[in-house]
Amino acid sequence: MTAPETEEYEMDYTYVLGKAPTPLQRRMAEWLRSDEVGYDPAAAKSKLEAFEEGVRLGVAHRMNYQASDHNREATARERVERENARQQAIAQRADAKAQRAAAKSQAAAAAAVEEAPAEEAAAPAPAAKPKGRKAAKPAAAAAAPVATPAPAVARPPARRAPARRAGAAPAAGAVPAPF
Length: 179
Prior knowledge:
By secondary structure, this protein is an all-alpha fold. 47% of the residues lie in helices and 0% in strands. It is flat and about 105 Å long.
């Protein structure tokens, strides 16, 4: 029996070409060029050498950078900025919602004021009904006779299997179970 053939998926790595660096990538590049690491791409003999050394340092120090105070402080600042922006957006949405609700209630009040004089002139106000329990329905004039169900055929109760006694001796000539 052979394994089913699977279609191989070829990854396209070119999708990131031409994209702007992320804030983390920018910060790491700054960190690599800082006095802490001391990388100077201008000291390289060619652009290719500068690129290769930058890649080597970036790969070698990725974990060191992520654990560095430089990255942790920058990440904390970004987190605070994102939270402030989120809170500001929530406040703006709440203000907009409140303004829409106020405008809607003002429009409803204006419409009610315009309709109220016309309704008062047309008909007197109905009497207020007391709140509470609903009134009971009137009783039926004559109750219909209730039909009694036919008696069911009597059946004997179902038999139960006899209970097993704990520690009962096996019957004479009984063969022990193979399991």
